Each structure stands twice: as C-alpha cells, then as structure tokens.
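Margin note from the TA: students keep mixing up input and output lines. Inputs are the sequences; the output is the structure of the whole complex. Example:
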Amino acid sequence: MIQLTEVRKYFGEKRALGPVSFEIPPGGAVGFLGLNGAGKTTLLRILATDLRSSTGEVEIAGINVATNPHAVRKKIGYLPETPPLYRDMAVGEYLKFVGQIKGLSPDRVDNRVREVEEYTQLTSVHDEFTQNLSHGYRQRVGIAQAIIHKPELLILDEPTKGLDPVQVLELRGLIMRLKEEHTILVSSHVLTEISQTCDRVFVLNQGELIASGSEDEISANLSGTYRIMLGARMAPDTRAEDLVHFVQGLPDITSVEVVQQDDQLLTLSVQSPTDCRGSLSRSLVKSGHDVVRLELGSNELESLFVELLGQKVN
Amino acid sequence: MNGLRVIFQREINAYLRSSVGYILAATVLMLDGLLFYTQALGPEAEARVSGQVLAIFFYTTSGLTVIASLVLSVRLIAEERQLGTQVLLNTSPVRDWEIVLGKFLAALVFITGITLGTLYMPLMIVVNGKVSIAQILVGYSGLILLGAAVLAIGVFATSLTRSQLVATAVGAGITAVMFLFWPLSTVVDPPMSRVLSALALHGRHFSGFQQGLLHTRDVFYYLAVTYFFLLLATKVLEAKRWE
C-alpha cells in the first residue's frame, strides 16, 4: 500500500524528517508514535500529498506521489490535526461539498452523505453549522470528510487530541470499525491510543524511525527475548515448585518467575528467545496441566517507548 | 471541471450567506446612488448632454467597481489558509487552476450582480435623455471587464500570503501602479508614454467604454490582464501547494 524510500524533509536548514524507509501492506491500522516534534505530522503530510519530501521516493498504491499526486489524492482521506471545516457551512452541506471535490458524482453524493453521517453518528447534526459544533463532533465531521469518497488509505493525525475520555472511547470504536474497510495510519503521542487501535507501530524520534513492528515484536527486539504470560491450573497433587521446575526444564526457556498463585491456579512470567507458546502449551497439557492463559507478555508500550527513547538518547 | 463547478458553487453560497457580501453590495449601491445624484444630477447637470451624464456615471461607477473587486478578492485564498481549509483543497483531486478559476468566477458573478444593481440610474437617463441601450451595454461591459481584471489582480495577491491585510496591500499596490500608468504616460516622452498608456488599467482603455465605444483593443487588454494575473495566481498556488 505504502512504500517510502530514503525520505527526508528539510525546513530550511533544519531536518524535520528522515531518512525514513518502510513499507506498509494494505489493511489494518498502523500507528505513528512519537513525542511532539518527532516528525509524525510531517510524515503524514507527505503521505497525504500536502507536503513534498525534500529527497526520496513515496509510492502509494503503486503510484509515485511526486509524479502523479492527483491520482494519489483520489485514493486517500486525510484528517489533519485541526479538521478543515468551513464554519459557514452546515454539516450535510459540507460533507456534500467534500464528496464532490473528492470526485463523487452528484447522483451518488447525497446517499453517501447519509451513509457517512449514520456511520459517524452525525445524522442529528446534519443541519447544524460546523462552527456551532462541540470539539468531539468536529472531529467526527473531520473523519466523515476523510472517508466520504471511500479512500483506500485513511490518514488521521492525532484524531483524539483535545477530546474528553468518553469522546476518546467513541472515536476509538469508530477507528476500530474503519479498520475493516481502510488501511489506516494514525499518529499520536498518547501511547494507549496506538496500543489499543493499531496492529503495527512505528516509533519516531527527532525525525528518525527508531523502531517498528507489533508491540510484541518491538518488545522482543528491544530485550532480545519474548516474555510469555502463562496461566496454568496445576494437575492434582502438583506443587507450584514442581511446575516451575518443569517449565524451566523445557527447551528455549531462559527463566521462569511466579507472578501469582491462587490455590491450584498459577501465573508465571516465562522468558524465551523465541515465541515458544505452541510447544509450551503442548508440553503442559501432555503433563496433565490445564493452560488457562497464554499470551505474549505485557511489556507495555509505555515502558517500551520510554526504553526506546532512553536507548536513543544514550 | 468538476472541481471548478463545486468550488464556484461553494463560493457563491458563501457570498449569499455572509454579511460581508451584503454590506459590500449595500455600500457600493448607496455610494453609487449618491455620486450619481451629486455628479450627474447636480447643479451643473443641466448644461450637460445625456451622453456626458452617462459617461460621468460610468466613470464614478468604475472607481467603486475597482474598490469592491479588491475587497472581494483579497480574502479568497488567504482566508482558506487562515482557517486551515486550504489543506482540504490541497489533498483533494482538484487542480490548482480549478481552485483559482472557481473562486474568480464566483467573485465575478457577485461583482456583476452588484454592478447590475446600478442599472436603474442609466435607465433614468434613457427615459429623460437621449442615449441608446447599446451605449449602456458597452459601458457595463467595460465595468465588468475592469472588475474582472482587478479581481484577477486580487486573486494573485491573495495567493501569495495567508494574511488578508498583506494581500490587500499587494493587490491595492498593483492596482494603484497600473492606474498611475495613465497620468504618468502624459508626462513622459514617447516611446515610454505609449508603453505606459497601453498598460494603464484605466484612462485609455476605459474611456472608450465610458463613451459607449467598443474597441476590440480594449476588450483584449482587459482579458489579457485577467488571464495574466489568474495564470500567475495558479502558478503561485501550484508552488505553494507542496511547500
């Protein structure tokens, strides 16, 4: 879907981004994480064809952005940090305008406006002027204008910025639903935002890409090990020490730590250089134990992020 | 062409719904009426023939058309940048010339509407004097062509900046210089005087329309000025779109 090769952006002498190279396949949601000034907005603006990169190549859906931006613009929907709303237009009228400039035919646009309003829960404010809307509704109108022409790629720059917790939850739900139909790029400096909505994370710092992958992959790459949370109901007459000893003896297990014990239910934190959840569960079941929890461990994004930035600074 | 049509419609609706549009129209029509009363129907009016009264009307109206065109045009693109809506146009599959032309045509229709609102004044001259409808049509053609040229200058000025104040200063500056070419042409020697009078926005090129005389040279001049500044505005927008 997206291919960036050695992309850099300079504002005067100052390097705002790059060199950045990556590839994003179609489907799912990708999060761009970084502190303020990390280069997230610059990168998203380049992908949204709002900004030209100083060097390097950007391809979206196989089309070179520099040589054919017009064709790329038909395939993207973009919500900048501040939704681009005309204050003198009502919501329905605005969405119709955006639909038309994005290329929807006049006979299709009215139906599409209705669909998008229902999808983003804007039907009740169809006739309201955008200047009279609350911040949450404005963000929703911003998302509605970005998806009105059913773009393949949806770019959302800090979509939850300034929203209250309830609005954040609502918008997060909306993004989760949009993931089913679009490839989504979301930027945020709120870690839980990215963690809960995105399948893949790109971490930016001072214009450079310092890590990428799923939360688990970043975690494994960072420490060189996978942390597996194992919950097991021990076989009758088995002591916790026996189970810990048993797990420690399995191949690829480097360390085992008891997290919690509740009668026969034992929770262990297991370190391994590989994702050995399959062999681990088979061995436990074979030995008569029940596996009630088995997941890659919660090196939470927040601590990973801090660790990543710490490494970079060091 | 779809982008042009949609932007044109949006701009027209924006004029019809904004108080600025109505205030501008009311101010121009009121001043025009007052000037017509004092200049054309004043104490010296009896000594004038109808053609002269009509020429004075078109002369005073041309000044107001120029000011109204500048006021209307300098917000066109600068305001989009100020409000953050330019990004919507930048990331949409709409060409730069469609943005420029859509906004320009909407402003031209609005200015034409205001100008035609003065029609009752020359019609009074028709009723009470001896001027032909053709003379009036030619005069109005001149006003609309002059308005189009100044609008194009304003669109160019507004494409340069996000500040409406700066755009106004640039637009007014270019217009003023092009107005001054005419008096300057009378005090310098040829061939400079010929060059300046050929480039002057008013004077030589508008006087024909004022008298009811249609010269293709003058029509071509105003169309060329309009095209030139719209082209410049498109190029500026093109360069700034990816800035």
